[in-house]
Amino acid sequence: APGAIGPLGTKEMDVNLAIAQSVERRLLKEGAVPLMSRSSPSDEVSLVDRPRLAVEKKADIFVSVHNNFLSSGKNPFHGSGHGYSVFYYHPHSLELARAVFGAYNERVPLPSEELRFGNLLVCRLSAMPAILTESAYLTYPHQEAMLLDSSFREKAAQAIVDGLRAFLKEQRERQR
């Protein structure tokens, strides 16, 4: 399933993949070994299979890249701060979520929603520290247009990488 589709016709799965591929390129440059659940727009991997693959491949960290959409019947003009958010479930994922959320605060030119506890399958089933990022809302045409702009996607990808780097640095310092 393509996930959410914005007013301009943008498929969430396409922009998610573009951001994830940018994260992958950046991680490779830093000497990391990223594992992707999808490698092309036609790949479809179920939510259950994503954390299972991470466990099977002995991943150290799990990041699920998404973009948000207001559910049907929600007033898009009610409330404030519709922008990026980062979700975690297990306590061992909180520091990773904080690090990535802090990097979004520095890099992504949208309102901050908040760091969120969320009973989300991909975060719940992951044995390693796991988060789910929501970079922008496809609901809003101006944010959908931002997601179609490669420079915005690069900012979101860099935020994820900066957060991962900060988290790993903190982990190393604690082990000393």
Supply database-style keywords.
176 residues, alpha/beta
Description:
This protein has 176 residues and is an alpha/beta fold. It has helices spanning 12-29, 49-56, 94-107, 121-124, 141-147, 150-175, and strands spanning 62-68, 84-88, 112-117, 130-137. Strands 1-4-2-3 form a 4-stranded mixed beta sheet.
Quantity of strands, as a count: 4
User: What overall geometry do the principal axes of the alpha carbons give?
Assistant: globular
The arrangement of helices and strands along the chain is HHEEHEHEHH
Sequence stretches where pLDDT stays below 50 over 5 or more residues: none
Q: Give the terminus-to-terminus CA distance.
A: 45 Å
Measured on Cα atoms, how large is the radius of gyration?
15 Å
Number of helices: 6
Strand order of the largest sheet: 1-4-2-3
Helix content: 40-55%
Report the mean per-residue pLDDT as an integer.
Answer: 91
Task: Report the sheet-strand fraction.
Answer: 5-15%
Give a quick precis of the structure:
The protein is α/β, with parallel strands linked by helices. It has helices at residues 12-29, 49-56, 94-107, 121-124, 141-147, 150-175, and strands at residues 62-68, 84-88, 112-117, 130-137.
SSE arrangement:
Layout: H1 12-29, H2 49-56, E1 62-68, E2 84-88, H3 94-107, E3 112-117, H4 121-124, E4 130-137, H5 141-147, H6 150-175
Helix pairs in contact: 1-6, 3-6
